[in-house]
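Hi again,

Forgot to attach this to my earlier email, sorry! This is the prediction with zinc ion bound. I've pasted everything inline since the attachment limit keeps bouncing my files.
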Amino acid sequence: MNYLILTTLIVWILWFSERYAWWGSTVDLKRPRVLMYHMVSDPVPGAKFNGLRVSPDIFERQVRWLKDNDWRFVTMSELVRHKPSDKVVAITFDDGFEDNYLNAYAILKKYDAKATLYLVVDRHDRDWSVSKKSHHNSGELKNETKLSDQQIQEMLDSGIFELGGHTTTHANLLALDEDSKYKEIKGSKDALESLFETKLSSFAYPFGIYDPIVDPLLVQRAGFDSAVTTEDGIMGDIATSPFELQRIKISGKDGFLAFKIRMRRGKRGLRK
Ligand SMILES: [Zn+2]
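Structure tokens for the complex follow:
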């Protein structure tokens, strides 16, 4: 073999291995996988947040693969109560984008799947990306249509979705004092429970930003029995830290190989 081809091949193998860490072992299949999605919609050319957009075709392929490979779909309230068993997966959606109703709902129904929706109460006309980084003021996420109450009611009535808390305004919890944090957390639970006549048992920290000393206790005090973060990975023992559960980030920028690797190992490669 010519020296240049050999070098190119070695460089490619190293790149591929670093990116996908294909040699890594599978995390125990008795540990549930919690998948984090935001939007199920086609990417927008040139948009900043395309990682949050998983196209409907790819989403369907992922759900079909889970079904075909004997993963059992649960909501977060079921996950917390479930006995350890092989291959349990909880699909979660953050924020409340309308495409969850327009695109994801029918796919979940088709494959007899379930999901948990971490819904922001005051979600319309609100640009929460700026409360994380002030330069995120493109309005891209603000301009995405959010779910209406009527759509949500239909999703809940189907039995396919359950609601989780995600604060009233998608607050950056680190920027608030304890009273205001508690109002955001408990207030969102109370508001959604009375509006939709349902029970919320799980919470998601907005942006995955939280104070690990105080905030899990506030979430517990508000009456939730679990909370998910945006830390990438497969959750450990649920009894040890039910208020800091890791999730597997499903990015619209990843291919199908990356999805399968994430299901096995929590992360796609060495770093993410
Ligand atoms: Zn969010």
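Residues 27-265 form a domain with the TIM Barrel fold (CATH 3.20.20.370). The helical segments are 3-20, 56-68, 76-81, 99-110, 149-157, 178-196, 215-221, 256-265.

That should be everything now.

G.
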